């Protein structure tokens, strides 16, 4: 027996139309570096998204299933593309402008982007790639920039404003299957070539609802959200879609990501919640400490991407009254997986201890703890920790990864750094179940993947900058990366001293710029440890 309730697909177009009509007076403010920032209402954003869809379909030949790339900062035009491209049935492909040129070329060709929207300020980055992008037929330039850099090639060059001018401000958005792909996002390639993840309309709609719950960010029309996290990085953690759904206004920083302009835009536009990686907030905290800024409006900053040092949490809260909220996720989880809001009745030192973890999983994320032999382990109460890989069920989030071509014949594969290597869809973690408090928190500790992704309290980038577990040298991290002195299952895998580190490992890290005056190991363009470099050094015999 079926219900009698309405059954409609969960589509990005429904978020677009809801924000345009119900929350039409909410606004998107783009920081331009000029005396007055640029402001556009949700109603105007929705109308311009319809104009963009008409232009893409009628002039550039974009149809359902076409892949359209964006190489853009966080701004109003990028939000228009965020809404228009999936709503018309095409696939939005956000390009990470911080990736090396060869990876950008690989990604654009692999995704088969025919149309690419580029901010004018990024043309010097994009133009040198064009000779290696035979599939790109149209380049749409957004904002001021030297168009001559991309002129004269086989791809046609269009101006964004001229392209959408005069188009109808409404569009008959198709009723497509909610499981159709909406957004394509590639990982940052810390372990090899970047891997593409296709988000469905259903996934993004449900993720937006999750972001707006009280257990996550609880956005409302009274909020102004500042997504410093780039829109090309896992959908800016879902904030653009969630804000348009909830009616929360948006402050877009564009390319002004340095501490001084961030502090100035907070003082001027008065956002209530922000989201970024720890390095952004570290710079902002130093700027706020040194200057005279009224930032009382900002009550919450969300930190993800890597573990947040407790000192950073205390600095914001004790000196500026801004609460830092720890979150965790992955590209494959859209990305929000958990948020660290302490349970009721927890206070004092217990609250600070809880907030240093990654918190509890959202209702839409399921996880289980797997032992070294593949057996499922119970979630323990009381003291102690259970160790093992934890597969995360992404049935509501991830439709599929895009297929990757096989490596060329004869290509040498890097040796694995540890016997218990992560499987494709397994994400090894540790569950921190200390009895203070005993309420479902989890703390990501990649026992085998020390150079991994989000949420590594003592074994990742945060440890090198004063996070949990103390300041760790590149020499120590190098030892762990090579698998030297690996801990048995169930034991803490932190390296507590530099004794016994092979000299060749130290020399290899020094050659890669990982030791010496700078304690950091080699990093990717997005600040993650570059496991490709470390594995190559290991495969070459630099580590024994």
Word description of this protein:
The chain has helices at 12-21, 42-58, 76-87, 101-111, 123-126, 160-164, 201-211, 239-246, 259-269, 278-290, 310-320, 348-355, 474-481, 503-511, 531-539; strands spanning 27-30, 38-41, 67-71, 91-94, 115-119, 138-142, 156-159, 181-186, 196-200, 224-227, 249-252, 273-276, 300-303, 323-329, 336-339, 360-361, 366-367, 369-370, 376-377, 385-393, 400-401, 426-432. The chain is an alpha/beta fold and 544 residues long. A 9-stranded mixed β-sheet has the order 2-1-11-10-12-13-14-15-16. The longest helix has 17 residues, at 42-58. The N and C termini lie far apart (64 Å). Residues 381-390, 394-441, 444-506 and 512-519 have low confidence and may be disordered.
Radius of gyration: 23 Å
The tally of beta strands, per DSSP, is 22
Mean pLDDT across every amino acid position: 79
With strands numbered from the N-terminus, the spatial order across the biggest sheet is 2-1-11-10-12-13-14-15-16
Overall outline: globular
Beta-strand portion reads 15-25%
Unreliable sequence segments = 381-390, 394-441, 444-506, 512-519
Count of runs of 4 or more consecutive helical residues: 15
From the helix content, strand content and strand pairing, which structural class follows? alpha/beta
Q: Approximately how much helix is present in the residues?
A: 25-40%
State the distance separating the first and last CA atoms. Answer: 64 Å
Oligomer: single chain
Major beta-sheet overview: 9 strands, mixed
């Amino acid at each position: 027996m079926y219900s009698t309730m309405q059954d409609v697909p969960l589509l990005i177009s429904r978020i677009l139309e809801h924000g345009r009509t119900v929350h039409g007076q909410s606004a998107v403010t783009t920081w331009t570096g000029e005396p007055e920032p640029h402001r556009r209402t949700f109603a105007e954003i929705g109308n311009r998204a319809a104009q963009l869809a008409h232009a893409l379909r009628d002039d550039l030949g974009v149809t359902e299933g076409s892949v359209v790339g964006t190489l853009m900062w966080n701004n109003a035009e990028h939000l228009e593309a965020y809404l228009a491209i999936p709503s018309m049935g095409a696939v939005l492909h956000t390009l990470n402008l911080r990736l090396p040129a060869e990876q950008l070329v690989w990604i654009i060709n692999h995704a088969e982007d025919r149309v690419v929207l580029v901010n004018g300020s990024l043309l010097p980055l994009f133009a040198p790639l064009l000779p290696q992008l035979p599939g790109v037929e149209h380049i749409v330039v957004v904002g001021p920039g030297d168009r001559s850099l991309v002129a004269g090639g086989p791809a046609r060059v269009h101006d964004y404003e001229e392209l959408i001018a005069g188009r109808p401000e409404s569009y008959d958005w198709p009723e497509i299957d909610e499981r159709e792909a909406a957004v394509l996002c590639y990982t940052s390639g810390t372990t090899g070539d970047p891997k593409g993840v296709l988000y469905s309309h259903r996934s993004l709609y449900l993720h937006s609802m999750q972001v707006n719950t009280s257990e996550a960010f609880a956005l409302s029309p009274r909020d102004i959200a500042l997504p410093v996290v780039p829109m090309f990085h896992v959908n800016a953690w879902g904030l653009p879609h969630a804000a348009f759904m909830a009616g929360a206004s948006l402050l877009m920083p564009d390319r002004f990501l340095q501490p001084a302009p961030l502090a100035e835009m907070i003082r001027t536009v008065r956002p209530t919640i922000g989201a970024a990686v720890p390095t952004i907030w570290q710079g902002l905290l130093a700027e706020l400490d040194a200057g005279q800024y009224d930032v009382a409006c900002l009550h919450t900053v969300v930190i993800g991407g890597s573990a947040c040092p407790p000192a950073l949490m205390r600095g914001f809260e004790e000196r500026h009254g801004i609460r830092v909220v720890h979150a965790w996720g992955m590209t494959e989880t859209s990305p929000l997986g958990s948020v660290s809001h302490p349970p009721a009745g927890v206070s004092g030192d217990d609250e600070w201890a809880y907030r240093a973890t990654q918190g509890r999983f959202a209702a839409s994320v399921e996880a289980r703890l797997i032992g070294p032999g593949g057996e499922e382990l119970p979630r323990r109460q009381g003291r102690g920790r259970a160790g093992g890989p934890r597969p995360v069920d992404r049935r509501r989030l991830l439709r599929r990864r895009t297929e990757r071509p096989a490596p060329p014949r004869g290509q040498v594969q890097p040796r694995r750094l540890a016997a218990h290597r992560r499987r494709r869809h397994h994400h090894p973690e540790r569950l921190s179940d200390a009895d203070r408090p005993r309420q479902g928190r989890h703390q990501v500790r990649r026992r085998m993947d020390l150079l991994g992704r989000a949420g590594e309290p003592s074994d990742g980038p945060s440890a090198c900058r004063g996070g949990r577990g103390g300041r760790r040298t590149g020499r120590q991290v190098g030892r762990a990366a090579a698998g030297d002195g690996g801990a048995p299952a169930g034991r803490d895998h932190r390296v507590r001293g530099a004794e016994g580190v092979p000299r060749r490992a130290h020399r290899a890290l020094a050659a890669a710029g990982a030791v010496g005056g700078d304690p950091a190991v080699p990093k990717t363009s997005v600040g993650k440890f570059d496991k490709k470099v470390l594995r190559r050094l290991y495969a070459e015999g630099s580590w024994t």
